[in-house]
Design a protein that fits this description.
The complex is a heterodimer of chains A (about 110) and B (about 110). Chain A is mostly beta strands. Chain A is built from no helices and eleven strands. The N and C termini of chain A lie far apart (about 35 Å). Chain B is about 0% helix and about 60% strand. In chain B, strand 7 and strand 8 form a beta hairpin. The termini of chain B are far apart. Chains A and B meet through strand 5 and strand 10 of A and strand 4, strand 5, strand 9 and strand 10 of B.
Chain lengths: ~110, ~110
């Protein structure tokens, strides 16, 4: 079974621009979560989508948004980029949501904001 | 609010045993997970504890005490390939997964 894929793998943007990241989950997985990882900060939860509905949201500003399509693929959008948005953005899929949801992570998209 | 505390770094020699502690505070709790991440790699799932006690998977074991809001990951017979970051994560009662800042394990020859 193919793993979680994320595109692009690397991205360089300038302040004020916007960016869209894509995530394709493992076949059959309906839950997709997004995380931001920066050095020393661990993984910060952004949001989770399940069956095209946002199920949970972390403490990030409204510049961060996402969506999920009927085939479970998900996109994350960041508008008006700031220098502090430079990070590794990880997507993870799981077969279900709720109390136990083993996450399968993709390789991430490394975003650099100049 | 929610918070997780784990040590930032642990160093040990090959063949040794390492214990990574994780304490948490949350208003709702389903379970405690552990993930491993090598430099430049994606986090991979190691274990999940929903009930008190010890779960063993090969050289790795994970423990949970819900009454103490505490858990640990035990790495036995350390190998060089175990050098990585280890994250504890809690699943809260809304099904949201919150990660700790991670523990860097350095294995020396």
């Amino acid at each position: 079974k193919a793993g979680v894929t994320q595109t692009p793998r690397y991205l360089i943007k300038t302040r004020g621009q916007q960016v869209t990241l894509s995530c394709s989950p493992i076949s059959g997985h309906r839950s997709v979560s997004w995380y931001q990882q920066t050095p020393g900060q661990g993984l910060q939860f952004l949001f989770e989508y399940f069956s095209e509905t946002q199920r949970n949201k972390g403490n990030f500003p409204g510049r961060f948004s996402g969506r999920q399509f009927s085939n479970s693929r998900s996109e994350m959008n960041v508008s008006t980029l700031e220098l502090g948005d430079s990070a590794l953005y990880l997507c993870a899929s799981s077969a279900r949501t709720g109390s136990y949801n083993e996450q399968f992570f993709g390789p991430g998209t490394r975003l650099t904001v100049l | 609010g929610q918070s997780l505390e784990q040590p930032s770094e642990v160093t040990a020699v090959e063949g040794a045993i390492v214990q990574i502690n994780c304490t948490y505070q949350t208003s709702g709790f389903y379970g405690l997970s552990w993930y491993q991440q090598h430099d430049g790699g994606a986090p991979t799932f190691l274990s999940y504890n929903a009930l008190d006690g010890l779960e063993e998977t090969g050289r790795f074991s994970s423990f949970l005490s819900r009454s103490d809001s505490y858990g640990y990951l035990l790495l036995q017979e350390l190998q060089m390939k175990d050098s990585a970051s280890y994250f504890c994560a809690i699943t809260d009662s809304w099904g949201k997964l919150q990660f700790g800042a991670g523990t860097q394990v350095v294995v020396t020859p």
